[in-house]
Design brief:
0% strand
């Protein structure tokens, strides 16, 4: 049986990959990344914030049952 630490490592890895792709293709996560960089955060710290943002988006989509809408006037997650 795998340990809880192994599970957390896999979740963290998946969240990081979502954040990296999100900064390239998702306007909401991209804007969040640029905002954190403008605040003087390091690239990795800003990416950590994007990881949280990506997970918040996933949670919001799952909870609401609606499709994700990245347009500025779309549903907020």
């Amino acid at each position: 049986m795998r340990s809880a630490q192994h599970l957390l490592t896999r979740i963290r890895s998946a969240a990081y990959k979502m954040a990296v792709v999100g900064t390239q293709h998702n306007p909401i996560i991209r804007a969040h990344y640029l905002r954190k960089r403008a605040q003087g955060k390091s690239a990795m710290n800003a990416m950590g914030h994007c990881m949280s943002k990506a997970l918040a988006i996933v949670w919001g989509v799952w909870r609401s049952g609606q499709d994700f809408d990245p347009t500025p006037g779309g549903p907020r997650t």
